[in-house]
Amino acid sequence: MGKRNNTAHRARDTLEFKLEAVRLVKGGQDVGVTAKVLGIAEKTLGNWVRLSKTVELKGVNPIALNS
Asked: How far apart are the C-alpha atoms of 48 and 62, rounded to whole Å?
């Protein structure tokens, strides 16, 4: 197996990354296209968007999602 790029993986795990991804989708961007551009699975992004609606996205302040 090849070496995993831990820096890139950690960047995808940050709250800021998740919030920005959700904001893009809520702003009208297509989930599939956004996921591809960000280098994450479409299902993952869809889960983040779904969880953001119920304020279960880990560490999310509901006010941050409405900005």
From this structure: 13
State the amino acid at position 8 in one-letter form: A
Instruction: Show the DSSP H helices in the chain as ranges.
Output: 6-12, 15-26, 31-38, 42-53, 62-65
30-65 residue pLDDT tens = 999 999 999 999 999 999 999 888 876 666 555 555
Q: Alpha carbon of 40 to those of 8, 9, 66: distances in Å?
A: 11, 10, 23
pTM for this entry: 0.69
**For the chain, first and last CA: distance in Å?**
41
Give me 65's structure tokens: 């999602």
CA distance 12 to 7: 9
